[in-house]
Each structure stands twice: as C-alpha cells, then as structure tokens.
Amino acid sequence: MDFDTSTIDNLVADVAREVDSVDLVTGQRADSIGPSSMEDYDNQLLLAELARLNQQSKLRSKFFWVASSLASFVILASTAGVGLYVILAGADTEPAVLITWMTAVVVELLGILKIIAVYLYPNDAAKKD
Q1: Which residues pair with 22 in a beta bridge?
Q2: CB-CB contact of 116 with 64 (8 Å)
Q3: HSE on the CB side for 30, CA within 13 Å?
Q4: Which among 20, 22, 57, 74 is least surrounded, fewest beta carbons within 10 Å?
Q5: Helix or strand or coil: residue 22?
Q6: What is the pTM of this model?
Q7: Half-sphere exposure of 41 (CA within 13 A, CB side)
Q8: Distance CA 71, CA 127 (A)
Q9: C-beta of residue 109 within 8 angstroms of C-beta of residue 102
Q10: How far apart are CA 26 and CA 97, in angstroms?
C-alpha cells in the first residue's frame, strides 16, 4: 500500500506525541524547532557539559564534608573504644592491643583519604584513552 505525502502528514498529525518524542540531548520536543546547525548543536552540548561540571563541583564540596565527618566519627569511636578498654583493663593492657589499634587507625585513615581523593578528583585522562 503506497500513501501519498498528504495522507502520511495527516496520519502523523493525528498521533499524539508523548514523552518518548523528547530529544534527550536538548530536552526539546521532537516537533519543536531544534538546533538549526551543527554549531548550535555543539553549543547546546557545551552548555549541558558546563551545567554538569557546575553540579559536580557543588556536590564535591558536600561529599568532602560528609565523608570527612564520617571519617572523624569512625576514628573518634575507635579511640573511645580503645580508651574504654584501657580504663577497664587498667595496668594489664597488652601493648599488642595498642599497637594493633594504632595500625588500624592509620590504615583506616589512609584508606578513607584515598577513597575521597579518587572520587573527588578522578583521573579523566585515563578514562579517555
């Protein structure tokens, strides 16, 4: 069955366009006027990338303070636990317990700092290769 152009236009006009017809890059409906040239399209992509980077920058600051607070809490809780142990054990505190605790706190702190640094400042050059 072959349809002429006017029949196809009438059929298309009768169909309601839903969310599926939104351009995911520009956010415009498919029936609206999109970028008129590649330069306009590139400008829209650049603006979207700038908006993403701005949001990422704001979230980095929030994540840093939340992660720093949680790390501080973990270290303080660990210190309180060992302090309570030393108080309860008195002079019978084993040196191995204190050495293990100090080692664990250092490893824990370095691990948390590494995770924060990798998340906040990813190596984008390695991802592009």
Answers
A1: 29
A2: yes
A3: 10
A4: 20
A5: strand
A6: 0.49
A7: 9
A8: 28
A9: no
A10: 60
Please, is 122 exposed, middle or buried when counting C-beta atoms within 10 Å of its C-beta (0-12, 13-18, 19+)?
A: exposed
What does the block give as tokens for 25?
A: 């890059």
53-86 b/e with 16+ CB inside 10 Å = b?
Answer: eeeeeeeeeeeeeebeeebeeeeeeeeeebeeee
- Scanning the structure block, which residue is given the tokens 């236009």? 9
**Triad 41, 27, 29: Cα angle to 5°:** 100
Question: In this structure, what are the phi and psi dihedrals at residue 69, rounded to the nearest 5 degrees?
Answer: -65, -45
Query: Tokens 């006027």 correspond to what residue?
Result: 33
Element (H, E) at 64: helix 38-89
- 104-129 pLDDT, tens digit per residue, is 888 988 888 888 888 777 776 555 55
